[in-house]
Amino acid sequence: MADSEQLARLKRSVLEWNTWWSPDIAIDLRDACLLADSLRGVILYQADLRGAILRGADLKGADLDEANLHNAELVLALLNGADLQDADLTNADLRGADLRGARLSHANLTKADLRGANLTLVDFKRACLRDAILTGADLTNAHLEGVDLTGANLDGADLIHAYLSNVDLTGAMGISCSPPPSSSSLISSHTHWRSLVMKAEEHLLLGVATLSQVCEGLAVLETQWRQYRPYPSANSALASSHFHNGEHPVVGNQAEATAVCAHVQACALFHAKARDCRDHPYL
What we know:
By secondary structure, the protein is mainly alpha-helical. It is built from seven helices and two strands, in the order ααββααααα. The protein has two domains: 1-178, 3 Solenoid (Pectate Lyase C-like); 183-274, no CATH class. It has helices spanning 4-12, 14-20, 183-186, 190-205, 211-227, 236-244, 254-274; strands at 143-145, 163-165. It is elongated. It starts with a helix and ends in a 9-residue tail after the last helix.
């Protein structure tokens, strides 16, 4: 059961809670009922929230890093931009939850129910989604590098522009494992490039990009510019010029097309996140 004093303090005010909070305090909110509460920006780092009821709760920008949310109910919860890195969400109910821009790298979502969840721009890097239910989930532009999707159900999930690298799809359902399309369908025109930029800027306006994401994005963007083979001598100025003009290089073969497609997606996303950052090296 939850610590009654801690629960009462949290319900009174997030500001009071965050002021009182200390990493030396063991947060015990097991089975706490926080139904539809406004917990925006709350610090729940390493908190014990096993079995907590957070249906419809507003947890935008919350710090849930390393939190234990085993069996927690988060149906329709608002977790935009929340930090859930290394969190335990085993068997958590996240149906219809909004996690746009949330950070779930290394999180454990084994058997989590994510049906209809909005997972746009979520960072799932090296997360475990074994036997997770992702039916109808929106994974547009999600980062799925090194994710374990063994036995997961992805029936009807939207994976448009999602970054999948070293993903384990053993036994996964509802996802096509057919050979990659031809270069002409991957990058067909300047319109494709521009549409990616517009989509990324749309997500930026939703306010789900944080300073840490901008910094990380800039690092990845710079690395990709330098490794981009179609531009000789790592000419980032030339690459930037092409990017801003909505142009793309000539693709010579299928393997190169796949690499270029991933490059375009990443550049569009990270450029949009960093366009208002003074340290952006390509503005």
